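Homework help board

Subject: predicted structure for assignment chain

Our instructor gave us this sequence and asked us to write out the predicted structure in token form, then describe one feature. I got the tokens but I'm not sure how to describe them. Can anyone check?
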Amino acid sequence: MSKYWTEDELTTLVTSFSDIAASDISLREIADILSGTLTDRSPESIRKKLMSLQTSGELEELINQTSEMSDSKISSKEFVDYIDRRCVSLPSRPFPVPSERPRNPVVVNILMGDTQYGMSFTERDTYGLNKYDSKEFTNRLKVYMSQLNDALHSIAASRDIVSVSISFLGDMVEGFGIFRGQQNFLDKKISDQVFDMGDIMAELVMWLAERVPKVYAHCVSGNHGRMSKDHHPNDNFDNMAYKIMQRRVENQENVNVYIYDKVGVYRIPEASNFTWLISHGEEVPFNSGRPANSATKKADNYKAITNVGVNYVCFGHLHKEASVSIPYGKVYINGSWIGGHPLVLSRANDITSASQTILVVDPDDGVIQEHTLMLSRPKELLPDDELILVPYE
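My token output:
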């Protein structure tokens, strides 16, 4: 009977017969009680089950199958045992199975930039705030992949990720000859910067392609990838690294790579109601009081020129995560992998931390979640013998 009845329901059913516990009744009388008195007195769940038996004819079948007992007198205990045996053998009555409600699809847009792979400086260069080199980049890459994996799992727990767009925002390599004395802040030759970063980006894209149905990579170049003035303005070491990445993943059928020069404008097919504008952001000066406002003007200018409305503007360059709302969208300034940077400290007197941004996009509602991946943690300052907090050795 447990196949169709819970223990509580069975107990209620038996208790309902307590008034005739000492009586001997026929199965016909039992049928009358089931179809009348008991259904009026029993809990709703039991009443519905008994009514379903009557409606389906299973109760009649139950009685007919024991015609030899129809005139017999049985005790209440025998009745309970009999019902238990017979109901277990009855087929279940079909009912509509509620279909699992499909979870709404979402698109994830990963902002990645300002890795400046190949740059090297010590804690002394940033007053003890931060250090960075190719080894530290590798450590932060492990943190990044772990947090990215956790974020995707968290998103997928409640929504279906139908595609991932990863926006490479430039300054993927540190470059060479960008500012005077830059050679003192390098630990990788430019060739190693380009080829290593090309491989790193390709491995990241392939890692995503194993986990989601579709991956789009949108790439813009940064100022650190610029070559000398003798080269074409669009010649850029970032673009070389992107080309390497593109060649590495070209046989992966669920990956599309788009390489722009300075500005990229695109729509994600799975969320095509919204337009994205990405650039490195070097046109926004470090000392701009409200850099997001400059990006807002850039979005307005682009709309005026092309008659295409821009919903989301994404750029980096400033090494500091921020965002500001615009009509029907938002401006996102992505952080950097470096964190405290000697140049940023000296030119902008600004202290930053290493972080990157992930955006979750609903096809109808736009960005509905924002995730920040923190790639480094503040260093604990311990006092020396004279109780002086020394940030570096």
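Reply (TA_rk): Your tokens look well-formed. For the description, you could write something like this. The chain has eleven helices and eleven strands. That's the kind of observation they're looking for.
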